[in-house]
Specification:
mainly alpha; two-stranded antiparallel sheet; two-stranded antiparallel ribbon; 10 helices; flat; disordered C terminus; Translocation associated membrane protein 2
Length: 358
Amino acid sequence: MAFRRRNKSYPFFSQEFLIQNHADIVFSLVIFILIGLMFEATAKTAILFIQPQYNVTTLSPEGEVTLYHYGWKDCATILFYFFIAIILHAVVQEYLLDKVNRRLHLSKSKNTKFNESGQLCVFHLVSSVWSFYILITVSETFLPSLWENYPHVHLRFQVKFFYLTQLAYWLHALPELYFQKVRKEEISRQLQYICLYLLHISAAYLLNLSRVGLVLLFLQYVSELGFHIARLLYFTDENHQKMFDMWAVSFVFTRMSTLTLMFLSVGFGLSRAENQGLDLDMGNFNTVLIRMTVLLLVCLTQSWLLWKFIRFQLRRWREFRHEQAVRKKAATKQPLRPLKRDSHGSARSDKERTEISA
């Protein structure tokens, strides 16, 4: 199974060999884990990589319900879906983005940004639809339930699987910077948002704030989906600017909604809960220090995003004003017609000569 066309062969385990064949190597590892399910001696080990662990069966009015909590075995599951994310990344790049790039004939810098937006557009679309499905099927995501009965240690299967795949995807984005040969000036920018996603998703998962985290991820992914669609349209035709205006509205709404929900759930809801204190066995992290740290982290992140957004909008406004000024100068600098001289040697325009002759 080859994901990339190979115009040249490289020595085994060389740098170029690993970059060209990393998806095939990872695919072989996934097949090796799946083969382990076929044998009784290795099935228990292989299932650790594929299926979420730490399930508990409880009784509810609906009957028996299987819930999950987190533990160190989740690292194996994240590793497996880390491999899956690398394979899917190569599939999208080879069979979708590369074909579009050949038709657009973009420059190298635009090509890198186009590939980035293309990959993130697919991921944000899938994640936003998936998170929305969880929100409408799980009743614990309504506003009062975001902080009631904290800690939310036990999760439904789809909620835990969603968090594990989110962590796996953003972890896979780190080696992809090397595999995709991202330029040095782009690495720092991409590392910033990758690390921020990993930090916030890990905090929501480990601190048992999965309900509010799920709502915030849905809002964030919908907003980012609009941005990357707008950027893809801009690369295809630079006259497509209206999508950026629509994204600007959703961006500001997302920032305000994020701050409001965090202050309601963490600052207001958890501060009035009865179970105050730190209890690692029960998964309770409801202390003043942890609440203030979480709120400070979210506020700093949202402020930083708003600052970048304002700079982006100011740059667009300056570019627009510059284009308008250039167009006005081009319109005013029209060539003047040379004046014709009459029989007496005086310079007159065509209009004056016509009036005199009449």
